[in-house]
Amino acid sequence: TAIMMLACMSRQMDFTDPECPPRLIQMLGGAPDVVLSDMAPNTVGHRETDHLRIVGLIAAAGGTAEYVPARDDCAARIRAIARPGDRVVVMGARDDTLTLFARELLANLA
Questions:
Q1: Are 24 and 69 contacting, i.e. CB atoms less than 8 angstroms apart?
Q2: Would you tell me how many other CB atoms lie within 10 Å of the CB of residue 48?
Q3: What's the pLDDT tens digit per position in 40-55?
Q4: 87 has a pLDDT exceeding 50
Q5: What is the crossing angle of helices 98-109 and 71-81, to 10°?
Q6: Rounded distance, CA 100 to CA 90, Å?
Q7: What is the spatial distance between Cα 92 and Cα 15, in angstroms, rounded to a whole number?
Q8: Do 13 and 20 form a contact (C-beta atoms < 8 A)?
Q9: Longest CA–CA separation in the chain, Å
Q10: Cβ neighbours of residue 6 under 8 Å, at least 6 residues apart?
Q11: Which of 8, 58, 69, 73 is an S-S bond match for 65, by CB 3.0 to 4.6 Å?
Q12: Quick one: pLDDT at residue 1?
């Protein structure tokens, strides 16, 4: 049985601050393999606005994201960019139809 020792540190930082990534790298002595964050935008209950805020945070953290407001357009966009071996994650809250959407998307990607 192998035992893996992991180092863990917790810091409160603002990823929208341009000085945050270099400060984190300096603090760690090199680029991290994983940054796990619980950052979330302040939501207002307006779906399009909230999605744009989420996309903005993903971009601020160095990721890429697109905002596609219509579900059918979203499925078409995923089919257009997905490649063999990609992992597609469908997430959402309080939407019982996401399971069906994910099944249909998987069937259309195969």
A1: no
A2: 9
A3: 677 788 888 888 888 8
A4: yes
A5: 30
A6: 11
A7: 23
A8: yes
A9: 50
A10: none
A11: 58
A12: 46
Question: Distance (Å, rounded) from C-alpha 56 to C-alpha 66?
Answer: 9
Q: Residue 27: which of 6, 13, 40 has the closest Cα?
A: 13
Task: Summarize the confidence of residues 56-72 as an average pLDDT.
Answer: 76
Backbone angles phi, psi at 84, to 5 degrees: -55, 135
Neighbours of 57 (CB within 10 A): 16
Q: Token digits for 53?
A: 């805020």
Q: Read off the tokens for 29.
A: 């002595």
Phi, psi of 103 (to 5 degrees): -60, -45
- Helix ranges (DSSP H) in the chain: 20-28, 47-60, 71-81, 98-109
- Cα–Cα separations (whole angstroms), residue 95 to 33, 100, 102: 32, 10, 12
Q: Which residue has the tokens 């971009």?
A: 59
Contact status, residue 75 vs residue 105, Cβ threshold 8 Å: yes
Residue whose entry in the numeric block shows the structure tokens 């219509």: 70
